[in-house]
Structures are given as C-alpha cells and as structure tokens.
C-alpha cells in the first residue's frame, strides 16, 4: 500500500467521526410549546354605567345680602368656619337708622296730638249741631279732620315700624347653620341692598347636591326602558357612585333627587340632581366630579379581558384554545366595555377559553401549554 492511500485511510478514520459528532451537536433541539395564560369566557349579568360630569352644591347655599345701606362696622365670625343659625355675622353702622327711627317716633307723637285735638273738636261739635248752634258744614269738616288725623296716625305707626325693622337689619345674622365662606367686604366698606351686593355665602354641608346633564337621546332611551314592566333599570337611580377629581371613589352612594322640568333648547340636554350624604364634609360646593349612573343591564353577557383582544382597523380577534392545546385565531364582535373587559356579542360561547396573549410568538395553529387563570372584571389576576 503506497503512502497516499495510507494518508486517505487515516483521514477517514480520524476526521469523519469528528465531523459526525459535530453535526449532532449543531442540530437544533426540538422547541417546547409556549406556556400561555388562558382564561374562561365569563357569562353573567352586567350593569353598564355611563359617566357624566357634575358640579357640587351644598344642601342649602344661602347668599348673605344687606337689606339696608350703610357702612360695615364689624365682622363677627371667622371666615371658613362653621356658624349657627341666628349668629351675628355683620353689623352695619346703626346711627343713621336710629336717627330715622327717632324722627319717626317724633312724627308719630305729633300725629297722636293732632288726633286728640281733632277728636275733641268733633266730640264738642256733635251736641252743638243737634242744637243748631253750629252748621252741618262745620260738623262735617270737624269729622273729616278727625278721620284724616286717624289715617295719618296709621301711616305714622307704619313708618315707625318700618324704621325699627330697618334698624334691626343693621345686624345681619346667619339664616342657617353651616359653613361660611370668605367675606367679600371688610370693616369700613359701604354696602347697599341689591342682588349684586353679596356679602358672603353660608352652605349647609350635611348633604350635598350634584347637578349633571344627560343628552336628550340618552334620557329618552332610559325613560322608555324604565317604563317597561319588570324593567331591570328600576331602582338604578338609587345607587349612584361619585368619582372625585383625584380619581378616588367617594365612599357614599347617592340617589337621583329629580330631573329638571324641561330640556335645555340650547344644549339639547336635561339637568338631573343627585343627593349624597357628606358626614365628613369632604365635599365642598363648586367641585367638579364624575357621576356614574347605571344606564343599561345586559343579561347573561359574555365577558373577556380587554388585554386578550387583538384590534386592528376595527377588527377584533382572539386566540381560542381548541383540542390538543392548539390555539386558533377567531374574529369576534365586541359591544360595550365593562371595567377592564369587553362584552362579546358574537364569535364566542360560554364554553370557550381565550389566550391572554402578550407575546408575538403566538400564531394561529400553535400548540401551547395552557395555564388556566381565574379572573373577574375590574380585578387583578389571581
């Protein structure tokens, strides 16, 4: 055997086994099925809520207006504090009003003297007229003078009463118990009666009112639904939730008190008012809040998590777990949102299981290792 053949045989013996071993090492291992979270389609009654923007008011918000003109002499309260009904809030300089009352008292005394004189003259004329000592004309004149004096007396009494009332208005008291705001006037300011002359406002915060508007179309739909016999919306207006500006849910539930008598022709909306208890006085007048009102009830609705839905150009799809742990993509129709889920109107049944998704490796026809998860709308996965 020549040297060349020996080299070839040695190459085959040494190199080929190594090449075979290397090829075995480079062969890709068989891929394991993806582990995918899977949830069951829920079937339950769903109470759908609509959100409206509202503004808060006190149970009573009473504006304090002066009823006489004059200079503010004193402020007798702490701004932003609680006041009680009848508590003195402001005093207006009473001296001009006292002078007016004293003048009325003087006028009354003068009229009373005139009444006494004219009555005396008339009483003296009566027997003289019977004896024809005075003419009937003189008797009638005496009687007229007495009647005129009596009428003047009534006017003088009314004038004195009015001046006393005005003097009483120089002391302004709280009309209700509640929280008083910041004063719009200070000591020394001149005030006068009128709707534009507001000194302050007192609010009763035991309960609060929230006013919100609803479109005419929504109002008509809800009214027709509630009017049906055995409507599932009956009583929905007695369980209203309120969302504060920081996103927190107010702990007290409210109820609708009334709706306005008319639909606003400029906005096409009707105004509603809801009442909420306010034991901690957390809510103040003037806040803007969100009102959630149950406006629809879906019986035996099918629910799936929103994160399991793939949406593209208005087309909604989900991966449905089938036999042999194989997932298939299905097109579905979704309705309203409910918390963090969708109501499915077509494409799924209550027995289906859908993949939560969350990976781009999931394809239609993929075999997966399902991991069943418990879930409920609005709650984190367990």
From TrEMBL:
<dbReference type="Pfam" id="PF25967">
    <property type="entry name" value="RND-MFP_C"/>
</dbReference>
<dbReference type="GO" id="GO:0030313">
    <property type="term" value="C:cell envelope"/>
</dbReference>
<dbReference type="GO" id="GO:0022857">
    <property type="term" value="F:transmembrane transporter activity"/>
</dbReference>
<dbReference type="InterPro" id="IPR058625">
    <property type="entry name" value="MdtA-like_BSH"/>
</dbReference>
<dbReference type="InterPro" id="IPR006143">
    <property type="entry name" value="RND_pump_MFP"/>
</dbReference>
<dbReference type="Pfam" id="PF25944">
    <property type="entry name" value="Beta-barrel_RND"/>
</dbReference>
<dbReference type="GO" id="GO:0046677">
    <property type="term" value="P:response to antibiotic"/>
</dbReference>
<comment type="similarity">
    <text>Belongs to the membrane fusion protein (MFP) (TC 8.A.1) family.</text>
</comment>
<feature type="domain" description="Multidrug resistance protein MdtA-like barrel-sandwich hybrid">
    <location>
        <begin position="62"/>
        <end position="199"/>
    </location>
</feature>
<dbReference type="InterPro" id="IPR058627">
    <property type="entry name" value="MdtA-like_C"/>
</dbReference>
<feature type="domain" description="Multidrug resistance protein MdtA-like beta-barrel">
    <location>
        <begin position="208"/>
        <end position="295"/>
    </location>
</feature>
<dbReference type="Pfam" id="PF25917">
    <property type="entry name" value="BSH_RND"/>
</dbReference>
<dbReference type="InterPro" id="IPR058624">
    <property type="entry name" value="MdtA-like_HH"/>
</dbReference>
<dbReference type="Pfam" id="PF25876">
    <property type="entry name" value="HH_MFP_RND"/>
</dbReference>
<dbReference type="InterPro" id="IPR058626">
    <property type="entry name" value="MdtA-like_b-barrel"/>
</dbReference>
<feature type="domain" description="Multidrug resistance protein MdtA-like alpha-helical hairpin">
    <location>
        <begin position="102"/>
        <end position="170"/>
    </location>
</feature>
<feature type="domain" description="Multidrug resistance protein MdtA-like C-terminal permuted SH3">
    <location>
        <begin position="300"/>
        <end position="358"/>
    </location>
</feature>
<protein>
    <submittedName>
        <fullName>Efflux transporter periplasmic adaptor subunit</fullName>
    </submittedName>
</protein>
<dbReference type="GO" id="GO:0005886">
    <property type="term" value="C:plasma membrane"/>
</dbReference>
């Amino acid at each position: 055997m020549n040297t060349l053949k020996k080299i070839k045989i040695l190459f085959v013996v040494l190199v080929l086994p190594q090449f075979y071993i290397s090829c075995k090492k480079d062969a890709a291992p068989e891929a394991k099925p993806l582990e995918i979270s899977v949830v069951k389609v829920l079937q339950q009654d769903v109470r759908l809520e609509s959100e409206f923007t509202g503004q808060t008011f006190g149970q009573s918000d009473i504006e304090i207006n002066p009823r006489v003109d004059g200079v503010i002499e004193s402020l007798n309260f702490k701004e932003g504090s609680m006041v009680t009904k009848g508590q003195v809030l402001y005093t207006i300089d009473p001296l001009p009003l006292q002078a007016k009352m004293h003048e009325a008292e003087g006028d009354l005394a003068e009229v009373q003297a005139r009444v006494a004189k004219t009555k005396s003259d008339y009483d003296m004329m009566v027997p003289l007229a019977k004896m024809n000592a005075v003419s009937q004309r003189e008797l009638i004149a005496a009687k007229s003078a007495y009647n005129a004096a009596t009428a003047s007396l009534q006017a003088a009494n009314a004038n004195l009463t009015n001046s006393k009332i005005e003097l009483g208005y120089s002391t302004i008291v709280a009309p209700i118990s509640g929280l008083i705001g910041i004063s719009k006037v200070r000591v020394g300011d001149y005030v006068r009666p009128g709707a534009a002359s507001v000194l302050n406002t007192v609010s009763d915060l035991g309960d609060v009112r929230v006013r919100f508007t609803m479109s005419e179309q929504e109002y008509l739909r809800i009214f027709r639904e509630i009017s049906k016999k055995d409507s599932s919306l009956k009583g929905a207006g007695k369980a209203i939730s309120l969302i504060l500006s920081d996103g927190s849910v107010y702990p007290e539930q409210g109820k609708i008190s009334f709706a306005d008598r008319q639909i606003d022709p400029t906005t096409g909306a009707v105004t509603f008012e809801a009442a909420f208890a306010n034991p901690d006085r957390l809510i103040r007048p003037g806040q803007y809040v969100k009102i959630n009102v149950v406006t629809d009830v879906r019986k035996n609705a099918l629910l799936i998590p929103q994160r399991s839905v793939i949406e593209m150009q208005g087309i909604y799809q989900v991966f449905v777990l089938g036999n042999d742990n194989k997932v298939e993509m299905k097109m579905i129709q979704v309705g309203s949102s409910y918390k963090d889920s969708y109501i499915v109107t077509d494409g799924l049944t209550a027995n289906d299981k859908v993949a939560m998704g969350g990976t781009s490796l999931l394809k239609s026809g993929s075999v997966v290792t399902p991991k069943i998860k418990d879930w409920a709308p609005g709650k984190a996965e367990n």
